[in-house]
Amino acid sequence: MPRANEGKHKSKGAPLPIVLILQKFLKTYEKHCAQSQTSVCPAIKSDLKSSIDSDQVLRKALLLESKGHTTCPFTTLEIIDCKMDLWSLERLGKALRFSSLRSLVLDYCKFGKEELESIFSGLENNQRLQGLSLRYCGLGPQSGLRLGSVISQSAICELYLEGNYLECSGALAFLRPIADFAETQGKDQLTPGSPDAGHPPQRLQAKQRGSSTLNQITKSSEAVTVKTTSGKKKRKKGIKKKMEGLMEAGPWLVKLHLADNGIDGKGKEGENGLLEFLQTLTCLIKYSAHLREIDLGNNVLGEMAAAEILEALRARKTGKLPVLKITVTPQISSDTFRSIWKNSKKSNTIRKKKKKTKN
């Protein structure tokens, strides 16, 4: 009996390991908030303290699924170089469907087929997420088709895929539905008598006022007012949808980074694979009114591919589409590289106007 009482006394006085972990986590969280000059979420702090007081594991915290009902809803989530098991990724995929996230970064997380499908299932038909980064995640050619399907049915407009292994076949499967959409839309806008001829969709026009698509996200929930001719302020209609943060689903790519993905003529498909990829890529360049930036660096495209890209850029200028910045591998002739660089820059119309004014 004395020994039993002594044992009870010791176990009661010493904190359990889980308590120490939760206490350390809470301190780390508060320290991070202070360093990043952000507010501590009252709900998170309250749940952690309750778990510490009751010596219980914090088993479930629906921080992402709350969809705006928490005091501080998450809009950006970065999980970099982290080993997550399949169960965790499935939970994340389910949470994405109901979250308020606008940007998701999963760089350097190696994913297999099942793990990727867990993420993709949460992105499909997602009308909130607009920025997705999957740099160095081990995406192979087989991921291209599924990725293209997801992008075509979501609001994602900034996509970063550097350092994967899509190769020509994966990149082709990914770009094909996006390029087909751009070509159809581009030709419709050029049809005589079309009300939208020469104008990008309304959704894009609102985005391009800022320097970055993701920068527009924080402004989308604010009330919009305009001044009438009488000087009185009038509130615009249709703000409810913006306040909810919903965007129309569709292939709205504005930024596309495909650097270092083995896109060359050395894969299984050889030069034919590169040719097919180029046909799809140049179609996207010629017709997409949304696209503003493409990074193809560290892919050995070759001289023929560079010439095709250059012609597509010239055709884009003829069609009076917005300027498209393209980065390509420098392993081509200096003349072609220089021409692509010049055609990716803004025109020097302003400079010419200044000279005329001086005369």
Walk me through the structure.
α2 packs antiparallel against α3 (42-54) and α12 (303-318) packs parallel to α13 (334-343). The protein contains 14 helices and 9 strands. The strands form 2 sheets. The protein has a 7-stranded parallel β-sheet. Strands 5-6 form a two-stranded antiparallel ribbon. With 359 residues, it is an alpha/beta fold. The N and C termini lie far apart (107 Å).
List its salient traits.
alpha/beta, seven-stranded parallel beta sheet, 9 strands, 47% helix, disordered N terminus
Distance between the termini: 107 Å
Mean pLDDT: 77
Number of helices: 14
Question: Strand order across the biggest sheet?
Answer: 1-2-3-4-7-8-9
The share of residues in extended strands comes to: 5-15%
Query: Could you say which structural class the secondary elements and strand pairing correspond to?
Result: alpha/beta
Topology of this protein?
Blueprint: H1 2-13, H2 17-35, H3 42-54, E1 76-78, H4 86-96, E2 103-105, H5 113-123, E3 131-133, H6 144-152, E4 158-160, H7 167-190, H8 202-207, H9 217-220, E5 225-227, E6 233-235, H10 239-244, E7 255-257, H11 270-287, E8 293-296, H12 303-318, E9 325-328, H13 334-343, H14 349-358
Parallel strand pairs: 1-2, 2-3, 3-4, 4-7, 7-8, 8-9
Antiparallel strand pairs: 5-6
Helix pairs in contact: 2-3, 4-5, 5-6, 6-7, 7-11, 11-12, 12-13
Please give a quick description of this structure:
By secondary structure, this protein is α/β, with parallel strands linked by helices.
